[in-house]
Amino acid sequence: MAERSRDWFRQAQADLRHARHALAGNHHDWACFAAQQAAEKAIKAVHAVRGQEAWGHSVTELLDALRPNEAGIDAAMLDRGRALDKLYVPTRYPNGLPSGAPTDYYTRAEAERAIADAEAVLAWCEGVLPR
Length: 131
Prior knowledge:
mainly alpha, 61% helix
């Protein structure tokens, strides 16, 4: 099977752009979800270039599966993963919250934090992916 790390990383970059556009449009729930997706796909790019299959959607677990062979996956990076993991389901599904719709819950500050976390993950991934 062809190695697809560049495709995974390009999609991660596109998802991060989508997160920024959603933030600009005050769609904070979608900005949060797109940020999570960007990080997930960027890490899957690293797994792909290492010849590893990466399944699932947990940013934390995907990062952890790369340790201890990858420098830079420290406690702070894992904390970014944990924060992003919390955005995977409840940003999209009303039954992930006690009441109301996800669009009622997410704030600009949360979206900005999610984007910053995703940016850090993508920067790390870009640093370990071959040029």
